From TrEMBL:
Recorded superkingdom: Bacteria
One Pfam short name: AhpC-TSA
EC number per UniProt: 1.11.1.26
Molecular function (Gene Ontology), one example: peroxidase activity
Substrates-to-products reaction catalysed: a hydroperoxide + NADH + H(+) = an alcohol + NAD(+) + H2O
Keywords for this protein: Antioxidant, Oxidoreductase, Peroxidase, Redox-active center
Protein name: Alkyl hydroperoxide reductase C
Subunit composition and interactions: Homodimer; disulfide-linked, upon oxidation. 5 homodimers assemble to form a ring-like decamer.
Catalytic class of the enzyme: oxidoreductase
Organism whose genome encodes this protein: Marinibaculum pumilum
Length: 219
């Protein structure tokens, strides 16, 4: 099944390093980032999960829970977490889902295309999840998705920037322009008429073209 932006994020029950969860209940009233990695005890994944551990306070400040996932069992995650802390300098305090039966991986379409003759079935290599990221809102809808190949470590600062943009859109109906960073000007979305925009943005806006309405970032 392939997922789309604005679809409801599939709910599931799973074992994690912090006990069993029901995903939607675990998300609660805030935002969530679900991200998969291919395999425990691998080099790029070690750097990624360590970096996310360091960024966790930034996600906390944005009312956002983070949760990792791979097809490894939770016992392996727990053992590997010690290596992550030792080598990357950050303890992994967010939960990691163990998905050896590929239930979540399949529901979120995190597996790569199988290689070769499909009659041979999946090999260990293509049973591993690719590097997926799902940004999920309090309404449990998918707000954004990223997919990276196994060979490329993600830029989690960009994931944080993406989250900030999604949260601004949800709160103020503004969009963010190319390479936008926190505090910079934003764009009034086309769905907001000039009439409504006048009420929402009484300070006015710059409009180099009628469809390009630029306002300071609302608080
Ligand atoms: C890694 O994390 O280094 C890795 C994992 C799977 C495939 C390639 C690289």
């Amino acid at each position: 099944m392939s997922l789309r932006i604005n679809a409801t994020a599939p709910d599931f029950e799973a074992e994690t390093t912090q006990g069993k969860i029901k995903f939607h209940d675990w998300i609660g009233d805030g935002w969530a980032i679900l991200f998969s990695h291919p395999k425990d005890f691998t080099p790029v994944c070690t750097t990624e999960l360590g970096y996310m551990a360091g960024l966790k306070p930034e996600f906390d400040r944005r009312n956002t829970k983070i949760i990792g996932l791979s097809v490894d069992p939770v016992d392996n995650h727990a053992k590997w977490a010690k290596d992550i802390e030792e080598t990357q300098g950050h303890a992994v305090t967010y939960p990691m889902i163990g998905d050896p039966e590929l239930k979540v991986a399949k529901a979120y379409d995190m597996l790569p295309e199988t290689e070769g003759d499909s009659s041979e079935g999946r090999t260990a290599a293509d049973n591993a999840t690719v590097r997926s990221v799902f940004v999920i809102g309090p309404d449990k809808k998918i707000k954004a998705m990223l997919t990276y190949p196994m060979s490329t470590g993600r830029n989690f600062d960009e994931v944080l920037r993406l989250l900030e943009s999604c949260q601004l859109t949800a709160k103020h109906q503004v969009a963010t322009p190319v390479n936008w960073k926190q505090g910079e000007d934003v764009i009034i979305v086309p769905a907001v008429s000039d009439e409504v925009a006048k009420e929402r943005f009484p300070g006015g806006w710059k409009a180099p073209k009628p469809y390009l309405r630029i306002v300071p970032q609302p608080k």
